[in-house]
Design goal:
Elements lengths: L2 H17 L2 H8 L5 H20 L1 E2 L4 H14 L1 H11 L4 H6 L2 H12 L6 H18 L8 H24 L7 H24 L7 H28 L2 H5 L4 H14 L5 H16 L12 H4 L27 E2 L2
Antiparallel strand pairs: 1-2
Helix pairs in contact: 1-11, 1-13, 2-11, 3-10, 3-11, 4-9, 4-10, 5-9, 7-8, 7-9, 8-14, 10-11
Length: 326
């Protein structure tokens, strides 16, 4: 792995590691039993802030593409993830979610031409096994809705990863702009569901506000920017193999900050999952994200890319295909 790719992998890995802090922040800083409101507060303020910062709106077919990607990566993913976590016992939602690399391997074969290898499939199974040893505790009653929601959240994020890779970005657009579009679209989709299911927003104290600020800025705006940046520079399969770092980080934070003991079997699971994450980075040469003219093609786009192409700035220039915010 060359230095440029190593830096890209390390920066992208910060996203799932940040997501691993979500449980700690939610339980220690936020109002109880408001998962949908929390999902909205993670996405919508961050998305609106990035729109104001970059000053750009999509144009043409990027309006519906931004909505689709926002729904897959944020709007559907957050509610399904929270629903599964509330209905399934002992980390089972995280175990079901850990099959994400296998979802992505299949979808990438269909839409990106990234043919899965036996090593990829075995690595995906090892990642799921490792995560299950870390987080799966006492068994509980089987909950069909919870299992379906967990599978749906994993499939939604996996599809979002693949289509983010397939469609690429409009010419002259950096990942910060794309992050703003998707977070705003996803947050707007969650908002009416949150108000319908959970009612009016709760009263917030200083501790709650601090937690939401962290979730919106670090855990969401920065983390998703790094994630989408990584998708543009790595294969979809390599990116998704970084996902197990999220439950591993959550387990480490639980041990360090909450005094939760780590049994030998959990340490073994951490070693297996981390090894699978590293193995998942031994991937073929990254594929170039399709250009706008390519994205409408019915076939998969698999043109090779030069490693670590220069980042497109997110400054106030006026690129083709975009409209300025008023």
């Amino acid at each position: 792995m060359n230095n440029n790719r190593l830096v890209t992998v390390a920066l992208t890995a910060l996203a799932p590691m940040s997501w691993g802090s979500t449980y700690f922040v939610t339980t220690q800083f936020l109002p109880a039993d408001r998962p949908l409101f929390t999902g909205m507060m993670r996405a919508l303020p961050a998305g609106l802030a990035l729109l104001a910062l970059t000053g750009r709106l999509p144009r043409g077919d990027w309006w519906w593409k931004a909505v689709v990607l926002g729904a897959l990566n944020i709007g559907a993913f957050f509610p399904l993830l929270f629903l599964s976590a509330y209905r399934l016992p002992g980390g089972m939602a995280a175990v079901i979610g850990s099959v994400g690399p296998l979802w992505v391997a299949g979808l990438a074969a269909l839409f990106l031409g990234e043919k899965p290898t036996l090593r990829t499939l075995l690595t995906g199974i090892a990642a799921a096994l490792g995560v299950s040893l870390v987080v799966l505790k006492a068994a509980g009653a089987f909950d069909t809705i919870g299992v379906v929601a967990a599978l749906g959240s994993s499939a939604s994020m996996s599809a979002g990863t693949v289509f983010t890779k397939r469609w690429g970005r409009p010419e002259g657009t950096g990942p910060l702009v794309m992050t703003g579009w998707q977070l705003t679209a996803g947050g707007l989709l969650i908002a009416p569901i949150a108000f319908f299911v959970e009612g009016a927003p709760p009263a917030l104290d200083g501790r709650n506000i601090a937690g939401y600020v962290y979730l919106a800025l670090v855990n969401t705006a920065v983390a998703y920017w790094l994630w989408f940046r990584g998708i543009g520079r790595m294969t979809a399969t390599s990116v998704t193999f970084l996902g197990p770092l999220s439950p591993l980080t959550a387990a480490v934070i639980g041990w360090a900050a909450l005094g939760q003991a780590l049994a030998p079997v959990q340490l073994l699971g951490m070693a297996i999952a981390f090894g699978a994450t590293l193995a998942g980075q031994a991937a073929p040469k990254p594929l170039k994200a399709p250009t706008p003219s390519d994205s409408s093609s019915p076939g998969p786009v698999v043109a090779p890319a030069a490693p670590e192409a220069p980042e497109v700035p997110d400054g106030p220039q006026e690129p083709a295909g975009l409209a300025k915010l008023p």
